[in-house]
Amino acid sequence: MQIMEKTQINIEKNQKEIKKHGDYSFPVDVSLEAIEAYEQGSFLWHWHPEIELTCILSGAIEYHINNQSYILTKGEGMFGNSNTLHSGYMKDGQECAYLSITFHPRFLYGYENSILQTKYIDYITSNDSWSSLKFEKHVSWHQDILHQMQDIYHMSHNKPADYEIQVHMILMQIFIKLYHYFSNLPEKLSHPQKHLQRLRDIISFIQENYDQDISLDDVAAHVNICKSECCRFFKKHMDMTIFEYLLFLRVQNSLTFLKDGESITKTAGLVGFSSPAYYGQIFKRYMKCTPKEYRDTAMN
């Protein structure tokens, strides 16, 4: 059995992604990604302060941002706002190649409290109601954005002398399009959405305690709601049960130990499984191979 070397999003305990999206002097990251390159054909829920633009080059992906779900196919894309929770999943076993461009909002506005920040950038990034926007095939200005993204990608491989200025100009042009769109929507009050903070609190609690014998009572008590409401709430926004997410996370976090050659028995205990046999059963459900097969292949 051949198992290709795969990766996964690295996150802190509060789900913030541990990754440099460029650096302070040029906070832009341009990368070509493939959903099948991630363990289990999905990248975990995470967030980052950068805005993220996605352009689907082939295949399809199931994309989740906050409480919104999208199916993105070739020729479509996505605007993901700053600080939004998001995750992605393989759709019906299809491979999917996509272009990702992330950039910190300050790259557009320059210095703190400039009019560019307070009047334009914050207008969008501080509004929780505008977490995302799908770029459609039949909308011309959406397609303009996707073409501009590809221009940036091509430049990143053969950087002209004025590369950074060109990228700044193109991203500003993209943001102007987004600003005109959002500013012409029916006016909504910009206020924190309590349900999104609750969702983040639940995910963070599970992430911090996945290796312990945690129960639904523990999760519900952490966010101060009853068990039935906690189950309903999580299922509605995550499209899976709390227990399913816990098992998914335990299997995901066990892969590092297996790659390091740890025993199956010890690995099962380290990630919170009650027995090696149960761990093996759940592992095979998600990974389509046994923990031993995965470990042996990863170490060869």
The termini sit apart by 12 Å
Average pLDDT works out at 87
Helix count? Answer: 11
Strand content: 15-25%
Rough outline? globular
Biggest beta-sheet profile = 8 strands, antiparallel
Low-confidence stretches: 1-5
Annotated CATH architecture of the largest domain? Sandwich
The tally of strands reads 8
CATH first level of the largest domain: Mainly Beta
Task: Compute the CA-based radius of gyration.
Answer: 21 Å
The named CATH superfamily of the largest domain = Regulatory protein AraC
Order of helices and strands: EEEEEEEHHEHHHHHHHHH
Helix content: 40-55%
In CATH, the topology of the largest domain is named: Jelly Rolls
Q: Quickly count the domains.
A: 2
Which structural category do the helix and sheet elements fall into?
alpha+beta
Structure, described:
This protein has 300 residues and is an alpha+beta fold. The protein folds into two domains: 28-183, Jelly Rolls (Sandwich); 194-299, Arc Repressor Mutant, subunit A. Helices cover 45% and strands 18% of the residues. Strands 1, 2, 3, 4, 5, 6, 7 and 8 form an eight-stranded antiparallel sheet that branches. It is globular and about 55 Å long. The termini are close together. Residues 1-5 have low confidence and may be disordered.
